[in-house]
Design a protein that fits this description.
Elements: H1 11-24, H2 29-36, H3 40-56, E1 61-64, E2 98-101
Antiparallel strand pairs: 1-2
Helix pairs in contact: 1-3, 2-3
The structure holds zinc ion.
Zinc ion is lined by residues 68, 70-71, 73, 86, 88-89, 91.
Amino acid sequence: MSNGDSEGVDEETTRRRIADHLRDEDATPSELAEALDLHLRSVYASLSHVSRSVEAGDERLLVVPPECSNCGFSGFDDPLGRPSRCPSCKSERIEEPVLRLD
Ligand SMILES: [Zn+2]
């Protein structure tokens, strides 16, 4: 697949590849983007769909919340919302969430 300008045409395949990868190993969104040759925003855009589609089976998409590298804060309202700044200490050094299929 080298047709790089048609991103999003096959979202269902993208979701399935994400789910397949997470069955093999836990990954952050960046690791998924790297492993599957996707844009990071495509990974984020797919995650809520992946979550819903695996729940139709007997699985769940678990999210280990992102954490602030500066103060350790991890109580983000929306762990998949790509927080850019820590509400506690205002640091922008936020670790990525880790995704896991269970
Ligand atoms: Zn912080």
